[in-house]
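Before going further, learn to read the protein records used in this course. The integers have meaning only within a learned vocabulary of local backbone shapes. To see the layout at work, look at the sequence and tokens printed below.
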Amino acid sequence: MAEENLAGVNLGLRKLTTMQLLNFCLGFFGLQFAWQMRIILSGPVTEGLGASPFIFGLIWLAGPVTGMLVQPIIGALSDNTHTVFGRRRPYLMIGAILAAIALWAFPNSETIAQFFANKLHFSLPAFGGLLVAAIMIWIIDACVNAAQGPYRALIPDNIVPEQHSIANSYLSFAIGLGSVIAAGTAPFLNWAFGYQMSVEAQFIMAALAFSLGMTWTCVTFAERRSEKSETESSEKEEKPSFVDNFKTFLQSSPEVYKICMMQFFTWIGVMCMFIFFTQFAIHTVFNVPDLTSVSDAIKLKYADATADATNFSSICFAVLNLVCFLVSIPIGLLSTRFGNKKVHMISLLTMTLAYILMALTSNAKAIMLLMGVAGIGWASILALPFAMLSEYIKKGSEGAVMGIFNIFIAGPQILVCTVVAWFISKCAINLGNGLMNYHWEYSFYIGAIVLFVALAITYMIKEKIVE
């Protein structure tokens, strides 16, 4: 292990102990805690403000659009940032602070819109609260993306290559744990103490988890000193543009292109679940009609069922991520022994089968079990593609590469937010008496198809083995 100087700055790549790996992933725990809360509760909040399935999908565009724009830019900037606080840490802290503010504001969007309407003396339009909510989601997602790329880049920055798979698996471990606690807290309090935690309180909890977790990582994890600092070079080298980095990235190996395509189709499938599962739980499993344009009396009639369905969705996400939490480190160990490719293929296959079976049933217990099965694939998705890619990263371009790779995560989400959301909005069910619903289960059929395509591409990858 490399020695550290008195300032705590690492002079070389390190091999981390188990405790150091656990400490390293705490900031990602907070990041995922916040994102999980946004996944589960954004649907009920925006639907209550008048968002139809298609409008809800458009609001979800915040994640992929900011991911495609923010991550490559922030990643490249962090590669070339040289401060006393490190290269990556300033972006981690700024992202966490701004996201915490937006997380508090999001469930209070209508109140905030009304406040500014009163202060500026204008009549609040019907969509005023929804507009504020959309802006807050865009801020949350931009900040999550601003933090995520530099955080992933800390691994090739500071950790020896033979630990890249296991380090990414520890991030998967943190994602699973953060998601379990985020999703399970409100249902547990309701079950154990009969206390229904408000949506506002859950978002405050998420804001605290994100800001405190990221602060802990920034304070306790010392970054390796960058080459520029070590050599104290006074000459300014000409930096490659984003387009140059993108071309170099894709042309570095034919396998990089395959990994990117695998990731592209994988994340279409992943987001078919994340974006639509809560609405699937509310409207398909619990048979609550679409509440977008109904009267307040009908909304009140279905309020208890909606709350129960939202808690059920939270429990299902907790199960998904509990399995992710439990299998993430074993997946890292298995991939070290048998290779990333084989383990990832089996994981994707389990997730594909789980999707198909969920689309075929509305039984709550079966769906909860199948979400756990899907958690095996989720754990692999969070770790092994990054581990495969990390073997092809040129030194000094870690942040830019992770940002570019995120395009193949964010881009697919745009398709889900637009095409899949539009498709579901066209698959209406007339319930009579002026009520309607949608075939939310169709998202799982689509997800299963694209996950199988990702599996086929994974099979074609010639994996680079690190001795």
About this structure: The chain has one domain: 23-224+247-460.
